[in-house]
Amino acid sequence: MPTIYDIDTGGKAPALEARDLSVFYGSKVAVKEISLTIPANRVVALIGPSGCGKSTLLRCLNRMNDLVSGARVEGEVAFRGKNLYDTDVDPVEVRRRIGMVFQKPNPFPKSIYENTAFGPRINGFRGDLDSLVEQSLRQAALWDEVHDRLSDSAYALSGGQQQRLCIARTLAVKPEIVLMDEPASALDPIATQRIEELIYELKKEYTIIIVTHNMQQAARISDYTAFLYMGELIEYGPTESIFTNPREERTEAYVTGRFG
Prior knowledge:
Layout: E1 3-4, E2 16-25, E3 28-38, E4 43-47, H1 54-60, E5 71-79, E6 82-83, H2 91-97, E7 98-101, H3 112-122, H4 129-139, H5 143-146, H6 159-171, E8 177-181, H7 189-202, E9 207-211, H8 215-221, E10 224-229, E11 232-238, H9 239-244, H10 249-255
Parallel strand pairs: 1-11, 4-9, 4-10, 7-8, 8-9
Antiparallel strand pairs: 2-3, 2-5, 5-6, 10-11
Helix pairs in contact: 3-4, 3-6, 4-6, 6-7
């Protein structure tokens, strides 16, 4: 059994709960019976060496693995009292409410405005779209940099700006949870700092789950950290405890750089 500290949900219902979650790619087991409680309005970091199952676990949380040929998921992911893998659950709606930001910025070949407006448009949004675009870009800390060139191509933006645009695009459909798969790994240090500052601000309104290889980044921005190794959850708890007083020898070896 993994070591799991008491998880303080602040008296709120958990934002998300994984229960005995396993993922198979064909006959290969990628994630082994992981159970995890994600508190609302917190940043949870998933850490571990390459190939340990971090991104696979992350993609389970909004059913992105449904799109991977040969992937099979067992167990439950509970969101608002409902198992997201029940047969009557629409995976498209799941991905609207639990958004995803990928490792490399992936703006559409459209204008800055149309990138941000894309999700609301296809979801039939009937309100003030200009206002929603502005709000989303402000939430992503990008409005001040692009407000006078919304018709420009998203490809004209820097890498860091493109990633914040992708975050704005995700926020525009009003998710409750945002998943981030190494969102700053392809960025320079200044752009990385902007993304980290943004994550800190976003947790006031959203629950953030982030995969990162960067130990310093996990220590800076997360409230809770889960350490995965070879598809298993080894330890999960408050970030300060994981980094300064881990209970598992393998956790200590990883966070101190002895392997990984």
